[in-house]
Structure prediction request, 379 residues.
Amino acid sequence: MKKIIATAESFGYGPIITCLYILNNLGNVDYIIDFYGSDISLEKAIESQLFHECIECNTYDFEELNKYMQDFIEADLILSIENPEGAKLGVKLNRPVFYIDNLFWLWNTIPNELKMVKKYFIVDTVNNKNLSILGSEINNKQVIGPLRDLEKSSNKKIANNAIINFGGGTSYLSNDSLVFDFYNEVIKAIRMELHKDIFIYVCGSKKLVENLAAKNHCSNIIFESYTHNKYIELLQTSKFLFLSPGLGNFLELLSTGQPVFFVPPINYSQFWQLEEYKKLNIGLFFLNWCDFPVNKEVKRIIDERIGVQQVLENIKCFKNEDNKILFAKSIKQYCKAVNMNWQKERDLLKKHYSTNGVEIVVKSIKNELKKESVNENED
Prediction:
C-alpha cells in the first residue's frame, strides 16, 4: 500500500486547509496518509479524520524532523504545504517531494533544496512578479490556480448575524499575547457598532477562541473553533462578515455576495495581500496598518521574520486613540453598506483565476504513485 507523508506549516489556517482540500479530493484511494506537524495544523489534521496517523513534531526544526528519517525514507510521496524543512528532508533522502507554495509572490529568495523538489506548485493568486524573477531558478515548477473551490456561488438565505473569523491567529513567528489582546479590542469595536440584537459568531483556533471567550461574557456572542464546512456555511449565511485578510478567507468570500470587512493584518503576508486587495472593486472594506494615523513602516521584499515583527509593532499602535477612532468610523461605513450585493463582480474576478489547481495537484499525486508502482514491479 502506498504511503504519503503530509506536512503543513502551522502559520494560520492557510497551509493546513490547503492540505485538506487536496487530500479530500483524492477520492477513494488505497493510500496510507500520515500527517506530521504541530499546533493549529495538527489540530485541524486530527479534526479532519483524513489521516492514518497524526504525529506531533516541530516541523520548523530540521533536527527534530530527522528523528523521523526512517518514516520519510519509507514514504512513496511527501506532500509539503509551505513547510520548507519537511521538503528539505525529503530531498535529502531522495524521496519524491511535491511542494505547494501559496505565497511565492512574497519571497525574495528560494532555498536551494526547494529548487530540487520533484514538483514545485506555484499558486498564482496575487500579482506574481516573482514568476519572472525567481521562477527560472526552480526545476519542475508548475503554475496553478487557487487551491479552493471557486465554482460555487451561494444563493442561501442571509441571516441577520455577524461572523468574526480571525483564522488560526497564531504562528511560530508571532506574539500570541499581543495578537489575542488586539483581537479582543477588535471585538469590542465591532460590538459597539452592531445592534445588540445581532448574534455574533467568533471563529478561530481553539487556543484563540478560548482566550477571547474568557474575556467576553455576552449572551449574543458564541466563541467556537468550527470545522471548515461549518465555517463556510456561516460565511455564506451571515449578513456581517469580519475576516482576517488571509488568502484563504479572500478566496472563500468570492462565493458570497456580502460586503466584507477585513480586520488589520497580524503577519507580513496578510499586510501585502491587503495592499493587493485595495486594487479590487468587489465590496471589500478595511484599514491596513499604513492607513492609520499612527503607524510603523512595513517594508517590502524582506525576510519574513523581520516583516512579521514590523507588523507586530503596528499592532502595538492600535490602542492609540486616533487609530481607534478611525477604526470605529471604518466599521460604521461598512455597516451602512452591508445590504449591497457584490456577487456579479466577484464572479467576474473568479474568471481570471484558473480553477483547476486542486485537480492538477491530485492528478499529479496519482500519476506519481502509479510511476512508483511501475518502478517497483520492474525491480
Summary: The chain has two domains: 2-150+354-378, 159-350. The domain at 2-150+354-378 is CATH 3.40.50.2000 (Rossmann fold). Residues 357-378 form the longest helix (22 residues). Residues 7 and 314 are 31 Å apart (CA to CA).
